[in-house]
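Thread: sanity check for a docking pose with zinc ion

Original post by kr_44:
Hi all, I'm comparing my docking run against an independent structure prediction. Below are the sequence and the ligand SMILES. Could someone generate the full complex and paste the structure tokens? I mainly care about where the ligand ends up relative to the chain.
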Amino acid sequence: MRFADIIGNAEVAKALASMADSGRVAHAMLMYENEGCGALALALAYVQYLNCADPHDGDSCGECPSCRQMAKLIHPDVHFVFPVNKGPKTSDDKPVSESYLKYWRELAIADPYFTEADLQKAIGIESKNGLIAVAEAKSIISKLSLTAVADGYKAVIFYLPEKMNQETANRLLKVVEEPPVKTLFIFITHAPEKVLQTIFSRCQSIRVMPLSKDEAASVKALKPADDREEYTMFMDLFSDLMNSILTRDLMTALECGETIAALESREKQKAFCNFAGNCIRKIFMVQQNMMQIADVEVHEEEFFKTVAARCGRKFCARTMTNIEHVVAMIDRNVNSKILFSDLVNRMFVSI
Ligand SMILES: [Zn+2]
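Reply from moderator J.T.:
Ran it for you. Here is the predicted complex with zinc ion included:
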């Protein structure tokens, strides 16, 4: 991945390149983004640039041995950590990221803008929570204790540090604080407030900005076709829900809530919440006469305009807050039937 290949976030790419040029390479960095905005792509391009044998014009060459290894995500000095759990794609009883590396590589090469739900699916743990357990910390420490294979930087790209528990963080703390020479940690988070303070406080933080409408469309084009299937399924569900609320049909609305609660995993339920939150934002934009920035696709226009005309003034703001609450509760393993029937009820009374 070269900086030139990255969709959006040109300013962040420039800042990373100049950090590398000036030699002021932070040994621990925390990139935070809204899911899918390219933090992983930026991290990969940054490490590739740092280790490139022939960098020029503010970018890596893309052709030297190091760049080629980075393109396949097989650089021997670059390690990846991400949340895992036991599943059918590994026989390891205590799996670590390495157990699923093949699937991680396939996913990240095809689409470095993948979401957490995409990752869960790729490694076959859709129905479980991914975690970063203490075995992972041991594995990283032992990898970093080895001498670098090449003459560049050793890097650990750490996806979703918010999924690590206190014990894992404690184990890692020393090496994050005082890493071996020419070693860097890049943490990528979607929820900086959930990253343990002991880790957060040791990192230089970088905000990866949300994508523009055109950039998001370019990212969408990278996604496999079954994402469109998910869109259709979510859109049908959301429109059934809104239509039943607007026609004051509480039974049907509650049935929609049950359908959402029955989605096969918590990640899928959260993906629906993100989708619904995005739809509510569109409704709000249409109500504010900001159609041009509402990001409404042509085939959706009629639906969003009709719904926007019929929702009360405070419905969108209240529903956004309620959806955020549901997402937080899903993470705390609260019963999803209760959560979604409560959400539907709240939407029903605040329309
Ligand atoms: Zn190169």
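The CA atoms of residues 243 and 249 lie 8 Å apart. Hope that helps with the comparison, let us know if your pose agrees.
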